[in-house]
Write a structure and sequence with these properties.
globular; single chain; mainly alpha
Length: 96
């Protein structure tokens, strides 16, 4: 029996447009939300206040017309943002 292969959704024009709507810092926040971090943990990682982290998450949800952190995490995975973050981390580990 052949096991099913997990496939990712293709990069659609809508996803590319959505990614361009976000600033670099918002991309950082999206990646952390997708990793399951709370606003407090995001604030500590990015050296911002917890309130600022909350506002970032709210603004991102609004820009992408999403309603929850779970939807945002799914969007990040489908958009490839989490894979990009993993690749960048591996490159940093290899360089340092």
């Amino acid at each position: 029996m052949v096991s099913p292969v997990l496939t990712t959704q293709e990069d659609t024009p809508a996803m590319r447009l959505d990614r361009r709507l976000l600033t670099r810092r918002e991309h950082d926040v999206v990646r952390l939300v997708a990793q399951g971090h709370t606003n407090r943990a995001i604030s500590q990682r990015l050296i911002i206040t917890e309130g600022t982290a909350r506002v970032y998450v709210e603004r991102i949800l609004s820009k992408l017309d999403l309603h929850s952190r779970v939807q945002l995490a799914v969007w990040a995975i489908e958009s490839g943002l989490t894979a990009q973050a993993a690749s960048a981390a591996l490159e940093q580990d290899a360089a340092g």
